[in-house]
Design a protein that fits this description.
Blueprint lengths: L9 H25 L5 H27 L5 H10 L9 H19 L2 H26 L6 H14 L14 H6 L5 H6 L1
């Protein structure tokens, strides 16, 4: 198994879900059972802040990194060309980035418990994104919410112009930044 492969074996692809699921569970248990007394509400709010922040991070990464910066743009183009392939960010890379860009700065600016709570929220968002994205591309979309997400993501993947609909788990930031679905783009494609 190559550590930095873009297209994963089924085992490596599923290991990503297992690793992040275990990390979310471990952080939640650590905060819930070993966290400082009297700070539960504060830490829960910090985790919710991390979860909310994930939605903006997801949008920004997808729009500006995966569709803007090389070599990420070229790598992401593989996903657009082969949407059912098991292509995702190598786990080692995503885990290192989360540790270096989320946990470490939060630890340096605050304390261990807030850093864990913020990271828990962001990791929960990342895991939710991974599960939703997998469901959208691999035929598992029961329920109205997932059906709407699938339609939105299909608009992003349409041939010719993937220039909108960057949000996977929410359309909020596409609406805020004006990158939501534009019917006039359908006529041009």
């Amino acid at each position: 198994m190559r550590l930095f492969a873009l297209e994963h074996s089924k085992a490596a692809y599923l290991a990503d879900f297992a690793l992040y699921g275990a990390a979310v569970l471990a952080l939640a248990v650590a905060l819930g059972f070993f966290g400082p007394e009297g700070r539960g509400a504060e830490l829960a709010a910090t985790a919710l802040l991390g979860l909310g922040a994930w939605t903006l991070v997801e949008y920004g990464l997808h729009r500006f990194v995966l569709h803007g910066l090389q070599p990420f743009r070229r790598w992401h183009a593989l996903h657009h060309a082969h949407p059912a392939a098991l292509i995702c960010t190598p786990t080692l890379l995503s885990a290192a980035l989360i540790a270096l860009l989320v946990f470490l700065p939060a630890l340096l600016l605050s304390d261990l418990w807030r850093a864990c709570a913020l990271t828990l929220g962001l990791l929960t968002g990342y895991l939710a994104y991974a599960v939703v994205h997998h469901a959208l591309h691999h035929g598992m979309a029961p329920g109205r919410w997932l059906q709407r997400r699938r339609h939105w993501h299909a608009l992003h993947h349409r041939a010719g112009d993937p220039g909108d609909c960057y949000g996977v788990t929410t359309a909020l930031w596409d609406r805020v930044f004006g990158t939501g679905h534009r019917p006039d783009a359908d006529r041009k494609a």
